[in-house]
Amino acid sequence: MPDIVWLLLPVAAFAGWFAASRGKGSRQSRCPDTMLGPEYFRGLNHLLNERPDKAIDVFIRMLEVTADTFETHLALGCLFRRRGEVDRAIRIHQNLVARETLSYEQRTEARLELGRDYLRAGLLDRAEALLNELVEAPGCREQVLTMLLDIYQQEKDWGRALGVARQMEHVDGQPVNAVCAQFLCEQALQAIAAGNHGLAREYLERALATDESCARANIILGDMLSDAGDTRTALEIYGRVEQQDIGRLPEVLEAMADCHRQAGSGSLMIDYLHGVISRYDGIAPVLLQAELLNEEQGHAAAADFLTRQLDSQPSVRGLARLIDLGPAGSDDYDDIFLRGLGKLTDALQDNSSPYSCTRCGFAGKVLHWQCPGCRCWDTLRPVNGVQGI
Questions:
Q1: Which residues contact 62 (CB under 8 A, 6 or more apart)?
Q2: What is the signed CA dihedral for 224, 230, 233, 234, rounded to 10 degrees?
Q3: CA–CA distance, 382 with 389 (Å, rounded to integer)
């Protein structure tokens, strides 16, 4: 018997009790079968023959929506939504909303659940319209704003998301500056895509004014300046990222190296990385320094440097790069062995996830500024260690 049938059995029992209790006063002399009526047994037959859709319709008709049965209807609708059967949940909650005999508070609660149904079904326009009607309703403002924020993020309507986040701050007192800065960064990216770099810069400046620790704003600003050919200012902006959040340093190191290459100052980047390696636990600055040494001083210098670093800082990515280079002074090492080892390190890297969410543990191969798992902002961090970056 499917799970839904077991879930409907309590509803069937309650419907039978309700129908019987209504008839007791006037039909004491009738037998129980007659007192329950054919409608109840028709619904029970649908249920036992695994036709839950028809059973639901029958039992809902029997359970008149009253103050006594409101919670039962509401709970049944929520149960269907949790099971992913959103169409059924919508039918039940719409039926509740249409009942003018219910109190204002009950109808508000039913409309709130209907809004959740629409949101779960992806009917964002319906959910938004309904929730905007409820935003001033007593007792549910925080829940409504939370759902509206979810909608605007899904729609990438960052201006409205920003407004709702500020309203939430007034309701629950929780600081929202960090999230608002992320929304402003998203608006900056939209402006860049539209070719409006002046507006993008305004958004980024607002993001930094909102949250001075927003490394993402400086990363985007540095990329803008670098693309425009202003490598000197770009390097200055990228340099601020380490002070804001050293965990975001791997996101700018390659860009910084490109700026130095364009300026013909690769040795300055090597000097910078030499200091960074002592401050950052990951392998990213080591790999970049090996790459620059290979460009500036040749293959042997890069391989020797990487060999010494891996002795104290084991890393799958570092080993893979060393295999590409070949160990220093190795003219007679076994090519077959190294090719096999290279395949092993490639497989390990393919199966590793260099980013992990500090909130929900989501693991990703690329940086997401909004976690796909818990949808929190700026919670994916680089994973350090043997398979980290």
A1: 15, 18, 19, 39, 40, 43
A2: 40
A3: 6
CA–CA distance from 212 to each of 243, 247, 381 (Å)? 11, 16, 19
**Residue 168 CA: distances (Å) to CA of 52, 160, 213:** 41, 12, 21
Predicted TM-score of the model (pTM)? 0.76
37 φ/ψ angles, rounded to the nearest 5 degrees: 90, 160
CATH number of 3-138: 1.25.40
Tens of pLDDT, residues 49-67: 444 555 565 555 555 666 6
Q: What is the dihedral of CA 225, 227, 229, 234, to 10 degrees?
A: 30
* Distance, CA of 160 to CA of 344 (rounded, Å): 48
Asked if 389 and 282 count as a contact pair (C-beta separation under 8 A), the reply is yes
pLDDT value at 6 more than 90: no
Could you tell me the CA-to-CA distances from 37 to 141, 210, 311 in Å, in that order?
44, 66, 83
Q: List the one residue out of 289, 287, 249 whose CA is nearest residue 269.
A: 289
H/E element holding 187? helix 177-193
- 321: CB partners within 8 A, 6+ apart: 287, 290, 306
Distance CA 289, CA 282 (A): 13
